[in-house]
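---------- Forwarded message ----------

FYI, see the Corrinoid adenosyltransferase record below. Original note from H. follows.
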Amino acid sequence: MVVLNKIYTKTGDAGETALGNGSRVAKHSSRVNAYGTVDETNATVGLARQHASGEMDAQLAMIQNDLFDLGADLCRPDMEKDADAEYQPLRMAAAQVSRLENEIDAMNAALEPLRSFILPGGSALAAQLHLCRTVSRRAERLTVELAAMESVNADAVKYLNRLSDWFFVASRIANNDGKDDVLWVPGANR
């Protein structure tokens, strides 16, 4: 259980922060950049939810919770020491990736195949979901960069890869099942 009585601690005033295992790193480290961008993704999902309802809102709520799980996973280095940890660290699981895949497949079944690239926009919800997509792609790039230097849970990377696809397909659903997608017209303004 988390208890936050005091919000500021002053421990980061010198430009360092604590990771989930208690070690301290620079706030600009690759690991902090990765989970910080996951947090930013979560904030964009909160904005999208202002325009969502029903099943879409419920799915976005699950994604927000997953993103907290993902942040917890990424802020805890040294996966090889998980078995020796005082408590079992929270790690992303293959089931979370599979859930996204199943939801993508279900949403995509209602859509006509794309014959053009689409521009981010259309309805307010679709525009917000495109923002979620681009921020989650940045989180993925930063996490892949981190994984090239340090140990990262493979399911964390897979989740981020599927998540941006989920946001793309969901944006088409939010655009009247793709009927109101804004199509790219190559060279239209030459």
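H. also flagged this: The radius of gyration is 18 Å.
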